[in-house]
Amino acid sequence: MANDDPTILGRIDITLQFLHQFGDEDAYVAVECKRVHASDPTLNASYVTKGVARFATGQYAAGHDWGFMLGYVLALPASAVVDAVDARIRKTYGESAGLTAEAAHSLALAVLDGALVQNGSHVIRLKHVFVDMVPAAPVTSTS
After folding, report:
1. Assuming Cys at both sites, which of 21, 57, 81, 139 could form a disulfide with 36, CB separation 3.0 to 4.6 Å?
2. pLDDT of 140 above 90
């Protein structure tokens, strides 16, 4: 992830490095964040076409073993979002790229795993974590 690389610069939402990776700009864990919504197919499609696709093409995390997608769930149920995203991933990248549920984390609505072929040959595993970003209901006064 060289600082002067125009295809990467300012595009990955979150990058993490472990202590042993400091000093190597190409050693990082990429986290791409996208909004999703139970009844908004445009947002759910964008999760795949503007999120997952960047890992599949190698624009993000080229040659890496892992990457993360973080889905900000704006409307429940989360299962509707997961089903829509999974269907889109399978349609775009094939059945073998489908999502598999994993043990949930107490702060996540869903945690899933998937594998994509990156740049035609390398396999990258993506962890998909969906978190609740549903806005709190407005407080109404009863005075």
Report:
1. 81
2. no
